[in-house]
TrEMBL record:
<feature type="transmembrane region" description="Helical">
    <location>
        <begin position="101"/>
        <end position="120"/>
    </location>
</feature>
<protein>
    <recommendedName>
        <fullName>Sugar phosphate transporter domain-containing protein</fullName>
    </recommendedName>
</protein>
<keyword id="KW-0472">Membrane</keyword>
<keyword id="KW-0732">Signal</keyword>
<feature type="transmembrane region" description="Helical">
    <location>
        <begin position="72"/>
        <end position="89"/>
    </location>
</feature>
<feature type="transmembrane region" description="Helical">
    <location>
        <begin position="347"/>
        <end position="365"/>
    </location>
</feature>
<feature type="transmembrane region" description="Helical">
    <location>
        <begin position="248"/>
        <end position="269"/>
    </location>
</feature>
<keyword id="KW-0812">Transmembrane</keyword>
<feature type="transmembrane region" description="Helical">
    <location>
        <begin position="210"/>
        <end position="228"/>
    </location>
</feature>
<feature type="transmembrane region" description="Helical">
    <location>
        <begin position="184"/>
        <end position="204"/>
    </location>
</feature>
<dbReference type="Pfam" id="PF03151">
    <property type="entry name" value="TPT"/>
</dbReference>
<dbReference type="InterPro" id="IPR037185">
    <property type="entry name" value="EmrE-like"/>
</dbReference>
<feature type="domain" description="Sugar phosphate transporter">
    <location>
        <begin position="70"/>
        <end position="363"/>
    </location>
</feature>
<dbReference type="InterPro" id="IPR050186">
    <property type="entry name" value="TPT_transporter"/>
</dbReference>
<dbReference type="InterPro" id="IPR004853">
    <property type="entry name" value="Sugar_P_trans_dom"/>
</dbReference>
<feature type="transmembrane region" description="Helical">
    <location>
        <begin position="140"/>
        <end position="163"/>
    </location>
</feature>
<feature type="signal peptide">
    <location>
        <begin position="1"/>
        <end position="17"/>
    </location>
</feature>
Length: 370
Protein backbone atom coordinates (compact mmCIF):
# COMPACT_ATOMS: atom_id res chain seq x y z
CA UNK A 1 0.00 0.00 0.00
CA UNK A 2 2.84 2.39 0.84
CA UNK A 3 4.45 1.87 -2.56
CA UNK A 4 1.15 2.45 -4.37
CA UNK A 5 0.66 5.67 -2.44
CA UNK A 6 4.13 6.93 -3.33
CA UNK A 7 3.69 6.09 -7.02
CA UNK A 8 0.33 7.90 -7.01
CA UNK A 9 2.06 10.88 -5.40
CA UNK A 10 4.67 10.80 -8.18
CA UNK A 11 2.03 10.91 -10.91
CA UNK A 12 0.13 13.72 -9.17
CA UNK A 13 3.36 15.68 -8.61
CA UNK A 14 4.24 15.40 -12.26
CA UNK A 15 0.80 16.58 -13.32
CA UNK A 16 0.74 19.50 -10.90
CA UNK A 17 4.18 21.04 -11.35
CA UNK A 18 4.45 21.82 -15.04
CA UNK A 19 1.70 24.32 -15.83
CA UNK A 20 4.19 27.00 -16.81
CA UNK A 21 5.00 29.17 -19.84
CA UNK A 22 8.20 27.17 -20.29
CA UNK A 23 6.12 24.24 -21.49
CA UNK A 24 5.30 26.12 -24.65
CA UNK A 25 8.85 27.29 -25.32
CA UNK A 26 11.29 25.48 -27.55
CA UNK A 27 11.81 21.91 -26.26
CA UNK A 28 15.01 20.81 -24.62
CA UNK A 29 17.26 18.31 -26.30
CA UNK A 30 15.89 14.82 -25.91
CA UNK A 31 19.40 13.53 -25.43
CA UNK A 32 20.36 15.87 -22.60
CA UNK A 33 20.79 12.72 -20.51
CA UNK A 34 23.75 11.66 -22.62
CA UNK A 35 24.64 15.02 -24.07
CA UNK A 36 23.99 14.17 -27.73
CA UNK A 37 21.82 16.26 -30.02
CA UNK A 38 18.90 14.20 -31.41
CA UNK A 39 17.64 14.18 -34.96
CA UNK A 40 14.71 16.40 -35.83
CA UNK A 41 12.14 13.72 -35.07
CA UNK A 42 12.09 11.37 -32.11
CA UNK A 43 11.97 7.72 -33.12
CA UNK A 44 8.53 6.19 -32.76
CA UNK A 45 8.00 3.93 -29.78
CA UNK A 46 4.79 2.69 -28.15
CA UNK A 47 5.04 5.63 -25.75
CA UNK A 48 5.97 8.03 -28.55
CA UNK A 49 3.03 6.88 -30.66
CA UNK A 50 0.73 7.63 -27.73
CA UNK A 51 2.38 11.04 -27.38
CA UNK A 52 1.83 11.91 -31.04
CA UNK A 53 -1.74 10.64 -30.93
CA UNK A 54 -2.48 12.85 -27.94
CA UNK A 55 -1.03 15.87 -29.76
CA UNK A 56 -3.05 15.16 -32.91
CA UNK A 57 -6.21 14.80 -30.86
CA UNK A 58 -6.17 18.46 -29.73
CA UNK A 59 -9.53 19.81 -30.98
CA UNK A 60 -8.72 23.52 -31.05
CA UNK A 61 -5.94 25.98 -30.42
CA UNK A 62 -7.60 27.27 -27.26
CA UNK A 63 -7.52 23.86 -25.60
CA UNK A 64 -4.13 22.77 -26.96
CA UNK A 65 -2.29 24.54 -24.12
CA UNK A 66 -4.22 22.64 -21.48
CA UNK A 67 -3.79 19.35 -23.33
CA UNK A 68 -0.06 19.97 -23.67
CA UNK A 69 0.22 20.71 -19.96
CA UNK A 70 -1.70 17.55 -19.08
CA UNK A 71 0.39 15.52 -21.52
CA UNK A 72 3.70 16.76 -20.10
CA UNK A 73 2.48 16.37 -16.53
CA UNK A 74 1.43 12.81 -17.30
CA UNK A 75 4.81 12.01 -18.88
CA UNK A 76 6.68 13.40 -15.89
CA UNK A 77 4.46 11.45 -13.52
CA UNK A 78 5.12 8.25 -15.46
CA UNK A 79 8.85 9.06 -15.47
CA UNK A 80 8.80 9.39 -11.68
CA UNK A 81 6.71 6.26 -11.21
CA UNK A 82 8.95 4.13 -13.45
CA UNK A 83 12.01 5.49 -11.63
CA UNK A 84 10.53 4.52 -8.28
CA UNK A 85 9.71 1.00 -9.48
CA UNK A 86 13.24 0.57 -10.83
CA UNK A 87 15.00 1.79 -7.69
CA UNK A 88 12.86 -0.31 -5.36
CA UNK A 89 12.96 -3.51 -7.45
CA UNK A 90 16.71 -3.04 -7.95
CA UNK A 91 17.28 -2.76 -4.20
CA UNK A 92 15.08 -5.78 -3.50
CA UNK A 93 16.87 -8.04 -5.96
CA UNK A 94 20.28 -6.90 -4.71
CA UNK A 95 19.20 -7.69 -1.14
CA UNK A 96 18.29 -11.20 -2.27
CA UNK A 97 21.12 -11.71 -4.79
CA UNK A 98 24.09 -9.47 -3.89
CA UNK A 99 25.71 -9.63 -7.33
CA UNK A 100 25.82 -6.04 -8.64
CA UNK A 101 27.87 -6.82 -11.76
CA UNK A 102 25.38 -9.47 -12.79
CA UNK A 103 22.36 -7.29 -12.03
CA UNK A 104 23.82 -4.35 -13.96
CA UNK A 105 24.37 -6.59 -16.99
CA UNK A 106 20.90 -8.15 -16.67
CA UNK A 107 19.30 -4.71 -16.54
CA UNK A 108 21.15 -3.62 -19.66
CA UNK A 109 20.37 -6.95 -21.32
CA UNK A 110 16.63 -6.65 -20.72
CA UNK A 111 16.80 -3.58 -22.93
CA UNK A 112 17.60 -5.89 -25.84
CA UNK A 113 14.34 -7.77 -25.25
CA UNK A 114 12.54 -4.44 -25.54
CA UNK A 115 14.55 -3.05 -28.46
CA UNK A 116 14.84 -5.96 -30.87
CA UNK A 117 11.07 -6.51 -31.35
CA UNK A 118 10.67 -2.74 -31.84
CA UNK A 119 13.36 -2.64 -34.50
CA UNK A 120 11.74 -5.58 -36.30
CA UNK A 121 8.34 -3.87 -36.23
CA UNK A 122 7.01 -0.78 -38.05
CA UNK A 123 7.06 1.19 -34.79
CA UNK A 124 10.73 2.12 -35.03
CA UNK A 125 13.31 1.98 -37.80
CA UNK A 126 16.43 0.02 -36.88
CA UNK A 127 19.67 2.03 -36.71
CA UNK A 128 22.27 1.60 -39.44
CA UNK A 129 25.84 2.04 -38.21
CA UNK A 130 29.21 1.85 -39.88
CA UNK A 131 32.38 0.74 -38.13
CA UNK A 132 33.34 4.42 -37.81
CA UNK A 133 30.03 5.21 -36.14
CA UNK A 134 30.51 2.38 -33.66
CA UNK A 135 34.08 3.45 -32.94
CA UNK A 136 32.92 7.00 -32.17
CA UNK A 137 30.27 5.69 -29.76
CA UNK A 138 32.55 3.32 -27.85
CA UNK A 139 33.87 5.86 -25.28
CA UNK A 140 30.32 7.04 -24.61
CA UNK A 141 29.06 3.47 -24.20
CA UNK A 142 31.97 2.65 -21.88
CA UNK A 143 31.17 5.59 -19.59
CA UNK A 144 27.47 4.74 -19.78
CA UNK A 145 28.18 1.17 -18.68
CA UNK A 146 30.57 2.20 -15.89
CA UNK A 147 28.14 4.84 -14.66
CA UNK A 148 25.29 2.34 -14.50
CA UNK A 149 27.46 -0.31 -12.86
CA UNK A 150 28.69 2.09 -10.17
CA UNK A 151 25.11 3.18 -9.49
CA UNK A 152 23.95 -0.42 -9.05
CA UNK A 153 26.89 -1.21 -6.74
CA UNK A 154 26.12 1.90 -4.67
CA UNK A 155 22.41 1.10 -4.45
CA UNK A 156 23.22 -2.43 -3.32
CA UNK A 157 25.76 -1.37 -0.69
CA UNK A 158 23.82 1.43 0.98
CA UNK A 159 20.43 3.06 1.34
CA UNK A 160 18.70 4.12 -1.88
CA UNK A 161 18.13 7.58 -0.43
CA UNK A 162 21.85 7.98 0.40
CA UNK A 163 22.94 7.01 -3.12
CA UNK A 164 20.63 9.58 -4.68
CA UNK A 165 21.78 12.28 -2.27
CA UNK A 166 25.41 11.67 -3.27
CA UNK A 167 24.45 11.49 -6.94
CA UNK A 168 22.99 14.97 -6.57
CA UNK A 169 26.62 16.15 -6.71
CA UNK A 170 26.90 15.21 -10.40
CA UNK A 171 26.78 18.89 -11.53
CA UNK A 172 29.95 19.53 -9.51
CA UNK A 173 31.73 16.74 -11.38
CA UNK A 174 30.40 18.04 -14.70
CA UNK A 175 31.87 21.49 -14.14
CA UNK A 176 35.23 20.05 -13.08
CA UNK A 177 35.42 17.65 -16.04
CA UNK A 178 34.37 20.38 -18.47
CA UNK A 179 37.16 22.62 -17.21
CA UNK A 180 39.75 19.84 -17.45
CA UNK A 181 38.84 18.23 -20.77
CA UNK A 182 37.17 20.98 -22.82
CA UNK A 183 38.44 24.15 -21.12
CA UNK A 184 34.81 25.21 -20.70
CA UNK A 185 34.05 27.62 -17.88
CA UNK A 186 30.84 29.06 -16.47
CA UNK A 187 29.85 32.39 -14.91
CA UNK A 188 30.54 32.89 -11.19
CA UNK A 189 26.87 32.37 -10.10
CA UNK A 190 26.98 28.84 -11.53
CA UNK A 191 29.97 27.93 -9.36
CA UNK A 192 28.43 29.63 -6.30
CA UNK A 193 25.31 27.49 -6.77
CA UNK A 194 27.50 24.40 -6.34
CA UNK A 195 28.43 25.35 -2.76
CA UNK A 196 25.11 24.16 -1.25
CA UNK A 197 25.37 20.99 -3.35
CA UNK A 198 28.81 20.11 -2.00
CA UNK A 199 27.93 21.23 1.53
CA UNK A 200 24.63 19.35 1.53
CA UNK A 201 26.19 16.11 0.29
CA UNK A 202 28.93 16.48 2.91
CA UNK A 203 26.45 16.97 5.76
CA UNK A 204 24.24 14.12 4.54
CA UNK A 205 27.24 11.78 4.27
CA UNK A 206 28.62 12.62 7.71
CA UNK A 207 25.23 12.09 9.34
CA UNK A 208 24.17 8.99 7.35
CA UNK A 209 23.23 6.27 9.85
CA UNK A 210 24.04 3.45 7.42
CA UNK A 211 27.08 5.09 5.82
CA UNK A 212 29.05 2.81 3.51
CA UNK A 213 32.29 3.71 1.77
CA UNK A 214 31.39 1.30 -1.03
CA UNK A 215 28.09 3.11 -1.59
CA UNK A 216 29.68 6.56 -1.31
CA UNK A 217 32.67 5.92 -3.58
CA UNK A 218 30.62 4.16 -6.25
CA UNK A 219 28.03 6.95 -6.27
CA UNK A 220 30.95 9.34 -6.79
CA UNK A 221 32.29 7.04 -9.51
CA UNK A 222 28.90 7.14 -11.19
CA UNK A 223 28.97 10.95 -11.12
CA UNK A 224 32.42 10.93 -12.72
CA UNK A 225 31.46 8.43 -15.43
CA UNK A 226 28.25 10.21 -16.40
CA UNK A 227 30.05 13.56 -16.51
CA UNK A 228 32.65 12.08 -18.87
CA UNK A 229 29.86 10.49 -20.91
CA UNK A 230 28.41 13.95 -21.55
CA UNK A 231 31.81 15.32 -22.61
CA UNK A 232 32.51 12.40 -24.96
CA UNK A 233 29.01 12.79 -26.37
CA UNK A 234 29.63 16.42 -27.31
CA UNK A 235 32.76 15.39 -29.17
CA UNK A 236 30.85 12.60 -30.95
CA UNK A 237 28.34 15.16 -32.23
CA UNK A 238 31.05 16.41 -34.59
CA UNK A 239 31.14 13.04 -36.38
CA UNK A 240 28.49 11.17 -38.43
CA UNK A 241 26.22 9.13 -36.18
CA UNK A 242 24.68 6.76 -38.71
CA UNK A 243 21.13 6.41 -40.03
CA UNK A 244 17.96 6.29 -37.93
CA UNK A 245 19.89 7.50 -34.90
CA UNK A 246 17.31 9.58 -33.12
CA UNK A 247 17.38 10.04 -29.37
CA UNK A 248 15.73 6.76 -28.42
CA UNK A 249 17.70 4.68 -30.92
CA UNK A 250 20.98 6.24 -29.83
CA UNK A 251 20.20 5.34 -26.24
CA UNK A 252 19.31 1.82 -27.36
CA UNK A 253 22.62 1.41 -29.20
CA UNK A 254 24.54 2.65 -26.15
CA UNK A 255 22.64 0.16 -23.99
CA UNK A 256 23.59 -2.76 -26.24
CA UNK A 257 27.23 -1.70 -26.44
CA UNK A 258 27.44 -1.25 -22.66
CA UNK A 259 25.89 -4.69 -22.18
CA UNK A 260 28.52 -6.31 -24.41
CA UNK A 261 31.33 -4.46 -22.64
CA UNK A 262 30.28 -5.43 -19.11
CA UNK A 263 29.18 -9.02 -19.79
CA UNK A 264 32.67 -10.64 -19.85
CA UNK A 265 33.67 -8.94 -16.59
CA UNK A 266 30.43 -10.00 -14.88
CA UNK A 267 30.99 -13.62 -15.93
CA UNK A 268 34.59 -13.61 -14.67
CA UNK A 269 33.92 -11.81 -11.38
CA UNK A 270 30.58 -13.32 -10.37
CA UNK A 271 29.78 -16.18 -12.74
CA UNK A 272 31.15 -18.92 -10.48
CA UNK A 273 29.29 -17.51 -7.46
CA UNK A 274 25.84 -17.30 -9.00
CA UNK A 275 24.80 -20.92 -8.39
CA UNK A 276 25.67 -20.74 -4.69
CA UNK A 277 24.09 -17.30 -4.35
CA UNK A 278 20.89 -18.50 -6.01
CA UNK A 279 20.72 -21.49 -3.64
CA UNK A 280 21.30 -19.21 -0.65
CA UNK A 281 18.48 -16.91 -1.78
CA UNK A 282 16.10 -19.87 -2.13
CA UNK A 283 17.16 -21.13 1.31
CA UNK A 284 16.43 -17.67 2.73
CA UNK A 285 12.81 -17.98 1.64
CA UNK A 286 12.81 -16.36 -1.80
CA UNK A 287 11.17 -18.28 -4.62
CA UNK A 288 12.71 -18.74 -8.05
CA UNK A 289 9.71 -16.92 -9.52
CA UNK A 290 10.33 -13.93 -7.23
CA UNK A 291 14.02 -13.74 -8.13
CA UNK A 292 13.39 -13.95 -11.88
CA UNK A 293 10.44 -11.57 -11.84
CA UNK A 294 12.21 -8.94 -9.73
CA UNK A 295 15.31 -9.11 -11.93
CA UNK A 296 13.26 -8.64 -15.10
CA UNK A 297 11.15 -5.86 -13.57
CA UNK A 298 14.27 -3.94 -12.53
CA UNK A 299 15.71 -4.26 -16.05
CA UNK A 300 12.48 -3.39 -17.83
CA UNK A 301 11.78 -0.31 -15.74
CA UNK A 302 15.41 0.79 -15.94
CA UNK A 303 15.05 0.97 -19.70
CA UNK A 304 11.51 2.38 -19.67
CA UNK A 305 12.25 5.24 -17.30
CA UNK A 306 15.08 6.35 -19.57
CA UNK A 307 12.82 6.02 -22.61
CA UNK A 308 10.13 8.17 -20.99
CA UNK A 309 12.80 10.63 -19.83
CA UNK A 310 13.61 11.29 -23.50
CA UNK A 311 9.96 12.05 -24.20
CA UNK A 312 9.87 14.48 -21.26
CA UNK A 313 13.03 16.23 -22.43
CA UNK A 314 11.65 16.42 -25.96
CA UNK A 315 8.57 18.31 -24.75
CA UNK A 316 9.77 20.90 -22.26
CA UNK A 317 12.05 23.88 -21.79
CA UNK A 318 15.40 23.23 -20.02
CA UNK A 319 14.21 25.17 -16.95
CA UNK A 320 11.11 23.01 -16.65
CA UNK A 321 13.29 19.94 -17.00
CA UNK A 322 15.62 21.20 -14.25
CA UNK A 323 12.69 21.66 -11.88
CA UNK A 324 11.22 18.29 -12.85
CA UNK A 325 14.52 16.47 -12.41
CA UNK A 326 14.92 17.97 -8.94
CA UNK A 327 11.41 16.88 -7.97
CA UNK A 328 12.17 13.41 -9.35
CA UNK A 329 15.12 13.00 -7.00
CA UNK A 330 13.00 14.13 -4.04
CA UNK A 331 10.24 11.66 -4.96
CA UNK A 332 12.73 8.76 -5.23
CA UNK A 333 14.28 9.59 -1.85
CA UNK A 334 10.85 9.84 -0.20
CA UNK A 335 9.70 6.61 -1.85
CA UNK A 336 12.74 4.68 -0.64
CA UNK A 337 12.34 6.07 2.88
CA UNK A 338 8.69 4.95 2.94
CA UNK A 339 9.19 1.50 1.38
CA UNK A 340 12.40 0.49 3.18
CA UNK A 341 11.82 2.39 6.41
CA UNK A 342 15.13 4.27 6.08
CA UNK A 343 15.83 6.44 9.13
CA UNK A 344 17.15 9.95 8.54
CA UNK A 345 18.43 12.20 11.32
CA UNK A 346 17.45 15.91 11.33
CA UNK A 347 20.95 16.87 10.13
CA UNK A 348 20.74 14.23 7.42
CA UNK A 349 17.44 15.70 6.25
CA UNK A 350 18.92 19.20 6.25
CA UNK A 351 21.94 18.07 4.24
CA UNK A 352 19.76 16.22 1.74
CA UNK A 353 17.46 19.21 1.29
CA UNK A 354 20.41 21.58 0.91
CA UNK A 355 22.04 19.39 -1.74
CA UNK A 356 18.85 19.04 -3.79
CA UNK A 357 18.08 22.76 -3.49
CA UNK A 358 21.63 23.47 -4.68
CA UNK A 359 21.10 21.29 -7.75
CA UNK A 360 18.03 23.34 -8.63
CA UNK A 361 19.96 26.61 -8.14
CA UNK A 362 22.78 25.27 -10.31
CA UNK A 363 20.40 24.28 -13.12
CA UNK A 364 18.67 27.67 -13.08
CA UNK A 365 21.95 29.61 -12.85
CA UNK A 366 23.42 27.65 -15.75
CA UNK A 367 20.35 28.43 -17.86
CA UNK A 368 20.03 32.13 -17.04
CA UNK A 369 23.68 33.18 -16.55
CA UNK A 370 24.99 32.69 -20.06
Amino acid sequence: MALRGVILLAVVSGAACFNAPHLHARPASAMRAVGVRPRAQLARTPVAVARVSMAEAAPAEGSSGLLNTLKVGFLFGVWYAFNIVYNISNKKILNALPFPWTMAVVQLGVGLLYLLPLWMSPLRKAPKLSSENIKALMPIALMHGIGHLCTVISLGAGAVSFTHIVKAAEPFFSTVMSAIFTKSYFPVPVYLALLPVVGGVGIASLTELSFSWVAFLNAMGSNTAFSLRAIFSKKAMEKPQGENMGAANLYGVLTIMSFLMLLPFALVLEGAKLKGGWAAAIAAGHTANYLLKTSLVSGLFYYLYNEVAFLCLDNVHPITHAVGNTIKRVVIILASVVVFGTKMTPLNQIGSSLAIFGVLLYSLAKQYCK
